[in-house]
Design goal:
- The structure is a single chain.
- The chain is an alpha+beta fold.
- It has two domains: 2-39 and 57-120 and 233-306 and 325-341, FAD/NAD(P)-binding domain; 136-227, 2-Layer Sandwich (D-Amino Acid Oxidase, Chain A, domain 2).
- It has helices spanning 19-27, 65-78, 147-153, 185-189, 195-205, 207-213, 259-275, 280-305, 308-320, 323-331, and strands spanning 2-3, 16-17, 38-39, 42-47, 50-55, 61-62, 84-85, 89-94, 100-104, 109-112, 115-117, 136-144, 156-162, 165-172, 176-184, 217-218, 224-227, 242-244.
- Bound molecules: flavin-adenine dinucleotide (FAD).
- The site of flavin-adenine dinucleotide has 33 residues, from β1, β15 and α7.
- This is Flavin-dependent dehydrogenase.
Length: 348
């Protein structure tokens, strides 16, 4: 495995672990409770001046990516994986003899008959995903909330809606909170492309967030950010011997909190396909069909969240009918639906 970061670091991510992710991590032998994960039994939706709460219909937790990625790498090493950290792949190409050849930043070459493409949000030249027309920008910031706000947030994941995007705040280990938000570039441009201006605007549009952040201490110098997230993308095909997984296979809208579970499941399914000698193009096509229905539903729901009328009525509806939130949460879970994507061969 070639990983460009020398050590795990903060990633832009809401750090919500859905029920499927918890199952996969458990199967890998990773004890997230021992790592300090916070159980998240509730979801709250806040828009304009309203907020509504519903219990989540599945177990969930939160854990910083730095802690999770550290544990995953340690587990891989313990399982015998050779990891080259701090080295990046510059080019991944196929040779005339059908081998996959990765050229690293120091010019050295790694060659293998099979490769797994797992570069997440970052595209490799020659394997790029299409451009994201809405030009989403995402930010993450850690805060130490004022004690009263930390106890009100308690063990909930709060989703906040505002024009141009949505954001979420939830507790993570160490008694701190993660605020992660997405916005379309054109809304950011209107505010001079400054995250501070947009954060202020978010709080004006969503007083619930202003309340949460009152007296909060920011824990990073500035938020970390990523741009151009191709939400809704599902890879159509691939070349022989190249299995694409995680965000390189599919990018589900962030509000579902399902990206990590898709990464874990697609990795597991790709390994099963590889061990069963299923050609990568067949695997990728099958994965696409399995992911498509839930992905489209998640996209439809994401469009709804960005709709002014929906923002006005959603929290009110949820007060009368919290079941809507439970149903949406259940229907946008992708991983459970494609758990059977591995071919029929026995994998031990
Ligand atoms: C705003 C936002 C909020 C989100 N919130 C959640 C959430 O709450 N819950 C959830 O489940 N999902 C969430 N997601 C989605 C989730 O972060 C991703 O789906 C998940 O991280 C994908 O995993 P991955 O392994 O494909 O990629 P990543 O986790 O991005 O890992 C890719 C790795 O590849 C390495 N790499 C990249 N390029 C190279 C290269 N050229 N050479 C070597 N190494 C390279 C990187 O350093 C990185 O470590 C969110 C996403 C966004 C944008």
């Amino acid at each position: 495995m070639i990983e460009r970061e020398p050590t795990p670091r903060h990633k832009v991510c809401g750090e919500f672990l859905s029920g499927e992710a918890l199952e996969d991590l458990d199967a890998l032998g990773i004890d997230i409770a021992a790592l300090g994960a916070v159980p998240i039994p509730y979801v709250r939706l806040a828009a304009a001046r309203r907020a509504a709460e519903a219990p989540l219909p599945f177990p969930a937790a939160s854990l910083t990516r730095k802690t999770l990625d550290t544990a995953l790498i340690a587990e891989a090493i313990a399982a015998g994986v050779r990891i080259e950290c701090g080295r990046s792949v510059q080019v991944l190409s196929r040779t005339a003899t059908g081998m996959w050849q990765a050229m690293l930043d120091d010019g050295s070459i790694c060659e293998a008959p099979t490769a797994f493409l797992a570069t997440g949000k970052h595209d490799l030249r020659g394997h790029s995903r299409p451009k994201d027309p809405q030009r989403w920008v995402a930010f993450k910031m850690y805060y130490r909330l004022a004690p009263a706000q930390a106890s009100e947030l308690a063990r909930a994941s709060e989703l906040m809606l505002y024009p141009g995007g949505y954001g979420g705040i939830q507790p993570v280990e160490g008694g701190i909170a993660n605020l992660c938000w997405v916005v379309q570039q054109r809304y950011l441009s209107c505010l001079g492309n400054r995250w501070e201006n947009f954060l202020e605007k978010m709080q004006q549009n969503c007083p619930h967030l202003a309340m949460r952040l009152a007296g909060a201490e920011p824990l990073l110098d500035k938020p970390i950010a990523v741009t151009h997230i191709p939400y809704g993308y599902i890879r159509r095909t691939t070349q022989d011997g190249l299995y694409c997984i995680g965000d390189q296979a599919a990018v589900i809208p962030s509000f579902t909190g399902d990206g990590i579970s898709i990464a874990l499941h697609t990795a597991r399914c790709a390994v099963a396909a590889f061990l069963a000698n299923e050609p990568a193009p067949l695997f990728q096509a099958r994965l696409r069909s399995a992911l498509l229905p839930q992905m489209r539903l998640a996209e439809f729901a994401a469009d709804g969240l960005n709709n002014a009328l929906a923002r006005a009525v959603l929290p009110f509806c949820l007060r009368i009918w919290p079941g809507v939130m439970r149903v949406t949460a259940r229907l946008t879970r992708v991983a459970a639906q494609h758990a059977d994507v591995a071919p029929n061969a026995v994998v031990s």
